[in-house]
Specification:
By secondary structure, the protein is α/β, with parallel strands linked by helices. The chain has 15 helices and ten strands. The protein folds into two domains: 190 residues, no CATH class; 227 residues, Alpha-Beta Complex (Spore Coat Polysaccharide Biosynthesis Protein SpsA, Chain A). Helix content is 51%, strand content 12%. The chain has an eight-stranded mixed beta sheet, sandwiched between helices. Helix 5 links the parallel strand 2 and strand 3. The protein starts with a helix and ends in a 5-residue tail after the last strand.
């Protein structure tokens, strides 16, 4: 559904205020005497760099020192002998003829007791052969259930997931994208681990299936390892973990408690993460086994995808800001969210304002210590994550070139975040739902293929099959 006028206006006003504040912070140091202009950046680099270093290295140290199974894994092993919980695998599919049959066969190959696993596919108004393929697959696989809704039903992926939510009967709901690939024992390891840990939701590490296609997909594979590493570190330090859409296991009871999926957002997974957080419903992160997915293949596709991720990520802070500073969260959680917000969203906008200030005042840049420290620590996290033992597709080998590629790749956020913030502050919002193109099979290696469908004229989009 489209955002209501009042909600859209409030978000635009908050985006404008955020942009103005970041602009002032970025330009103000240029008015200070030369000897003091770097003090703000050095201060931020020291404080936030120290927190980030602790997040990355402490988690890595804990893992290197841990030779015995954790309490959670031991408890999960004990629970594995208990009766298996019912699991509903849910996929929102639109024009997925290239991958939908492969997905159904992959779910059929999962090790889970018969009668305790159901696959729900919501055909979201497909115009290709997806409906015919699903009808054929239903004849071979009794566990497959298919729901259909019109292409203009509204709500995007959230609307599709809400349609099936009321019909589910299992304790757990596993949300997948149509291109997802899972190891056959994933449920045998994931569900007991979630139940033993008391998690309301668990996010599997996302692994890139086509990492070897080109440098862009290789960089995305590094980013996914980096993201999972940071998520685990944040959680281990008393901070916050987030859902990433594909490969998220959700407690149906917890999901109903928070009202299902929000149809007034461009990133249902990030929005749901904050609603679980504010409701006191813990989210865990599991490194192995991973969920595999296709990375986009071209820079235009990446640009469209990352605009949506940036907008959804920033929008949730605007929507849930009062709750995030309330007593519903503990000090460690607030500290973690503050550092994450400053590094992920404030830094890129402030750095852009710093460049503008450099041009206007003809003085030297002032925020470079903060930016360099942030990128250097990100490179360290990439190297740490990619060197970690992992299942699924091999992670990129680490050497000076690949580490440099990973750091250079992350610079794109210094362009995406300011641009999206400017759009959010100036342009009216209209939700238009489009999807990421999934090629499937050997077609993933076609470097000439575009990774996303064309964007709507207003430039606002939602990729149906990717959060996160």
């Amino acid at each position: 559904m489209a955002a209501g006028g009042s909600d859209s206006d409030r978000r635009r006003a908050k985006a404008a205020l955020f942009l103005a504040c970041c602009g002032l912070v970025g330009i103000a140091p240029h008015w200070l005497p030369p000897g003091r202009s770097l003090v703000p950046a050095i201060t931020l680099a020291t404080l936030l760099g120290g927190y980030s270093l602790r997040t990355v290295l402490l988690q890595a140290f804990r893992r290197s020192r841990s030779e015995e199974p954790s309490e959670d894994l031991s408890a999960a092993a004990l629970l594995s002998s208990a009766p298996a919980s019912a699991v509903d695998v849910v996929v929102a599919a639109r024009d997925e003829q290239a991958v939908i049959a492969r997905l159904v066969e992959r779910i059929a190959a999962l090790s889970w007791p018969e009668g305790q696993l159901t696959l729900w596919v919501v055909d979201d108004g497909s115009d290709d052969r997806t409906p015919e393929l699903l009808a054929e697959l239903q004849g071979r696989h009794p566990f497959l259930r298919v729901l259909r809704r019109p292409r203009d039903a509204g709500g995007g992926k959230s609307g599709a997931l809400n349609l099936v939510l009321q019909q589910l009967g299992g304790r757990w709901m596993l949300v997948l994208d149509a291109d997802a690939d899972l190891e056959s024992d994933v449920l045998e390891r994931l569900v007991p681990w979630a139940e033993a840990g008391g998690w309301a939701a668990v996010q599997l590490r996302k692994a890139v299936a086509n990492a070897q296609t080109n440098l862009l997909t290789t960089a995305q594979a590094m980013e996914m390892a980096f993201d999972a590493m940071i998520q685990e570190g944040r959680l281990a330090n008393g901070g916050v973990a987030e859902l990433r859409g594909n490969g998220q296991l959700l407690s149906r009871e917890a999901l109903l408690k928070v009202g299902g999926f929000n149809e007034d957002t461009v990133t249902d997974d990030l929005d749901l993460s904050f609603r679980f957080l504010l409701a006191g419903l813990p989210i865990g992160v599991l490194w192995d086994p991973p969920v595999q997915e296709e990375a986009v293949l071209t820079l235009p596709a990446l640009w469209r995808q990352r605009q949506r991720w940036a907008e959804g990520g920033l929008q949730r802070f605007f929507d849930y800001g009062p709750g995030l500073v309330s007593n519903r969260l503990g000090f460690s959680q607030k500290l973690d969210l503050t550092c994450f917000f400053l590094l992920q969203y404030v830094l890129p906008v402030v750095a852009s304002a710093d460049l503008i200030g450099t041009v206007l005042t003809r003085t030297a840049p002032t925020m470079w210590p903060f930016s360099i420290v942030a990128l250097a620590l990100s490179g360290m996290a990439i190297a740490t994550g990619c060197r970690r033992p992992s299942e699924g597709p091999p992670l990129p080998a680490m050497n000076p070139f690949s580490a440099g590629l990973g750091i250079l790749y992350l610079v794109h956020w210094f362009v995406v975040i300011p641009w999206v913030t400017l759009k959010m502050a100036l342009l009216p919002k209209k939700l238009v739902w489009v999807k990421t193109l999934h090629l499937g099979g050997d077609q993933c290696d076609l470097a000439t293929a575009d990774g996303s469908s064309t964007e709507d004229p207003e430039g606002h989009s939602e990729l149906l099959s990717e959060p996160g």
